[in-house]
């Protein structure tokens, strides 16, 4: 699918919702195009649910998320939407050879490395003989470590393993793939609208343009950035109508570009979100994240680093938390992070290193984010829904 | 394709749908919507496709995994007719 073939689809969507969804009635006029529609986010939808939500007749599916944003949110889907979203995910798994009648092993979001839990999953692998195993990347890594230690072979019919909801560390990816003996497929989605992108067997991370329309904007100007430039990922669901997700700001940072050969829309995500650096009364410039990409690249090259996390402990204080062997030198990373933060946030910062044996997952989401802040966002900013 | 084979496809498709949604084939009509009227859900959707592949001997392509094709009994019959050799 090309960008030009998507234009009529989003314009038709704009026409539909501007005539059917009260919140969008002001954009009914023919003079308005899709790109004139306002951006949305969780706060906006929560505030205007009465004008946005259209409850379907028949069965509905709902789930709740606070995710990494901390904003409680109810996701609702009709049976038809649920079916379309499931079919989209399956379509992508099919590219990996998954049969219609398949077996999947799902790892818990709250995986611990207790032997009992590992033994449970090893038994499940043996009993179920899954076609694929799905879980947070950190859970897949833990299971791979256990399998390696115990010399446990993966199921013979395994086609791939699928990450869900966490950033992938390249050096760990290679280890996980070698233990399971199959490739890892990365997945990017939101609870609100499910699939956004799925890794193809050839390694490209492809947006599924049958279910979403993706834009990348400069969060400062709200203008689109050029293809290949980092910015905030904004998605429009082409499936969801119960609650329409139109130009929905994800807070995720990434870039998109069109693959010349296949025409597919490729995506690359940064392992952090827009909201993860909190500054007093100002936003982090989007260009900052481009330079952060280099820092993460350098960090990923350190094969002996098992886990890491940057923690903003105060407006100007950051700790690089690292789980690595004691002999691993980390001073250069401390210096590099100090330079990066100082130069691009334009403030004097303190950076320290904290060595830990293991970084625990977030108790709400079960994820191990690469960047967390302990700074409370100012109430005024939170009320305005400012993403900083 | 002869009228007989078209009728035969129609009958078989209705029986496949009835088997998947656990309803009596005699009570299923062309206008029935698979999700709203017959209770097809996301898991049964894949079962339906597997059953259609098995019953009619065709292999679905990646682009076929779109529930829009299977919106109603009638659209499902059309989908199958388009893929069964004349």
Walk me through what this model shows:
The complex is a heterodimer of chains A (388) and B (86). Chain A contains ten helices and 17 strands. Chain A has helices spanning 3-20, 42-47, 49-52, 79-94, 115-128, 137-150, 170-180, 287-301, 331-345, 379-384, and strands spanning 60-65, 73-78, 104-106, 132-135, 160-163, 184-185, 187-190, 194-199, 205-207, 212-217, 231-237, 248-258, 265-273, 305-314, 317-324, 350-355, 371-373. In chain A, the strands form five sheets. Chain A has a four-stranded parallel β-sheet. In chain A, strands 10-11-12-13 form a four-stranded antiparallel β-sheet, with helices on one face. In chain A, helix 5 crosses helix 6, helix 6 crosses helix 7 (170-180) and helix 8 packs antiparallel against helix 9. The longest helix of chain A has 18 residues, at 3-20. Chain B has one domain: ACP-like (Non-ribosomal Peptide Synthetase Peptidyl Carrier Protein, Chain A, Orthogonal Bundle), CATH 1.10.1200. With 86 residues, chain B is an all-alpha fold. Chain B has helices at residues 3-21, 42-56, 73-83. At the A-B interface, helix 4 of A face helix 2 of B.
